Amino acid sequence: MPELPEVEVVRRGLEAHVLDRTIESVEVLHTRPVRRHLPGPEDFAARMTGRVFTAARRRGKYLWLPLDTGDALLGHLGMSGQLLVQRPDAPLERHLRIRFDLGDLDLRFVDQRMFGGLSFSEGGAELPSELRHIARDPLDPEFDDAEFVRRVRRSSSGIKRILLNQTIISGVGNIYADEALWQARLHGDRRGDRLRAVDVALVLAAARAVMTAALGEGGTSFDALYVNVNGESGYFDRSLQVYGREGAPCTRCGTPIRRISFMNRSSFFCPSCQPPPRARPWPRLSSATWAAPTPA
Ligand SMILES: [Zn+2]
């Protein structure tokens, strides 16, 4: 599944290649990727035709391309989606679903499994209303670190669950959450309201660092005309410390990495560097509680 750094690479590629281009025609080859556009695929194509892309924006793993009308093309890559900028004469991809003719270029949405999709967001140029509930991500210059620390420390959820909560922080994803927690030496079950501010700041800095590193490694392709993203890119495998390393020694202390199931997925962690939270002892009862009742 594309993670945030890969989506950011796609955003930069789109910014480099499709701005100021007019959509001459739109071909919807499969209706499923435009299922969220309720008036149907013909209406989708009609609304997009003749419009001009004016920017390429992102919030978490959602991308949107504002149009000259103040509306936007909104997209999510899902599990296997790709947005490709191609020459019009390039052979059609096997899983090509939607094709935008931009004159001397094509913008193509290719998606094998079709969990992703595109939609037309009315008035969505600044921020599509569909995304209003999604928080900024840690690579966003306007992300508010202090507010994030406060919100985590008000939550009784485990820190990993908080990192995956898109209304508090977006785009972190399962892999980066595990990596950031390992860096910060925190077990994912540690409750937000029992963490010190310094620990929360540490895990946020770690998430930002691993995502920035992946962006650097994945950013090599963005100058190319062919803008590609898929789950198999493998560029992050080289730098992963815990994710997918069950049984391998922790690179910090040598203890075998453990895997546990978590929200239908997996969590990887080092049981020595990231000890699970201890159960709190029962509050000590004051002696007054135990005083014999005074006779009435
Ligand atoms: Zn360790």
Question: What do we call the CATH homologous superfamily of the largest domain?
Answer: MutM-like, N-terminal
What is the average of the pLDDT values? 87
Q: How far is the first residue's CA from the last residue's CA?
A: 70 Å
**Poorly predicted runs:** 219-235
| Helix percentage | 10-25%
Q: Remind me, CATH topology of the largest domain?
A: N-terminal domain of MutM-like DNA repair proteins
Number of domains: 2
Structural class: alpha+beta
Per DSSP, the total helix count is 7
N-to-C SSE series? Answer: HEHEEEEEEEHHHHEEH
Number of E-state strands: 10
What's the alpha carbon Rg, rounded to whole Å? 23 Å
The strands making up the biggest β-sheet line up spatially as 1-6-7-5
Describe this structure in words.
By secondary structure, the chain is of the alpha+beta class. It has 2 domains: about 5-130, N-terminal domain of MutM-like DNA repair proteins (Alpha-Beta Barrel), CATH 3.20.190; about 145-270, Helicase, Ruva Protein, domain 3 (Orthogonal Bundle). Helix content is about 25%, strand content about 15%. The chain has 7 helices and 10 strands. It has helices spanning about 5-15, 40-50, 145-155, 160-165, 175-185, 195-220, 285-290, and strands spanning about 25-30, 55-60, 60-65, 70-75, 80-85, 95-100, 105-110, 115-120, 260, 265-270. A 4-stranded antiparallel β-sheet has the order 1-6-7-5. Strands 2-3-4-8 form a 4-stranded antiparallel β-sheet, with helices on one face. A two-stranded antiparallel ribbon has the order 9-10. A hairpin with a 2-residue loop joins strand 9 (about 260) and strand 10 (about 265-270). Helix 1 crosses helix 6. The longest helix is centred in the C-terminal third of the chain and has 22 residues, at about 195-220. It is elongated and about 80 Å long. The relative contact order is 0.14. Mean pLDDT is about 85; it is low at about 220-235. It binds zinc ion (ZN). Zinc ion binds near residues 250, 252, 253, 270 and 273.
